[in-house]
Write a structure and sequence with these properties.
Elements (H helix, E strand, L loop, with lengths): L4 H6 L16 H9 L3 H20 L4 H18 L9 H19 L8 H5 L5 H11 L3 H11 L5 H8 L3 H19 L6
Helix pairs in contact: 2-3, 3-4, 3-5, 3-8, 4-5, 7-10, 8-10, 9-10
């Protein structure tokens, strides 16, 4: 497979919110098309899963590194998409790539690349945001990723279920229990 990776991520048509609605488009068909060299299909996969991948990374790496690592994850996925045996298993596959990339980040230590101008100029997260993300990172794994998908990435419960392969009920339970633990850790009262 020879796809120009940078072109796949740069030159894609925007996917409307309606088109990203649950149930469409068919992920397995997009994966098959991307494996065959369709850069637009891969761009759509990026649009569908970038927020999920960002949340997986936020659960494990510093905030300022997560965005660059999202691109690393998708470039890895682009190179290896032909190796994915079950196209319907794209969500857990790319989440695993993200988790592995986060482990690599910690194994190798801090990145030694020079920061791009736009990253260097980006506003650092507020103290409250850092505290909240650290509190979420301290939660058990079961709650960490769904909470980041919901609270940071703005994904709905059904959208989290569709992207991760979890059942809607599991997502609801994990979000509810995770929020309860998060409130306790942040010293907040339960809503009435």
């Amino acid at each position: 497979m020879s796809i120009d990776a940078s072109r796949a991520l740069r030159h894609r048509r925007p996917v409307s919110r309606e088109r990203l609605a649950l149930g469409s488009p068919d992920v397995a068909s997009l994966v098959a098309a991307a494996a065959a060299g369709d850069t637009r299909a891969f761009g759509t996969l990026h649009d569908l899963f970038a927020r999920m991948v960002h949340a997986v990374l936020l659960a494990r790496v510093p905030v300022r590194e997560a965005e660059d690592l999202v691109q690393d994850v998708f470039l890895t996925a682009l190179r290896k998409i032909g190796q994915l045996r079950d196209p319907a298993a794209f969500a857990p596959w790319i989440a695993r790539i993200a988790r592995n990339r986060a482990m690599d980040y910690h194994r190798r230590g801090k990145r030694h690349d020079s920061l791009s101008q736009d990253v260097a100029e980006a506003a650092p997260p507020s103290a409250e945001a850092k505290e909240a993300i650290e509190a979420i990172r301290a939660l058990p794994d079961t709650y960490r990723e769904p909470l980041l998908m919901r609270l940071v990435e703005g994904m709905s419960g059904p959208e989290i279920a569709a992207r991760t392969g979890m059942t809607p009920g599991s997502v609801r339970v994990n979000l509810h229990r995770g929020m309860k633990l998060l409130r306790e850790r942040l010293g907040m009262k339960e809503p009435a």
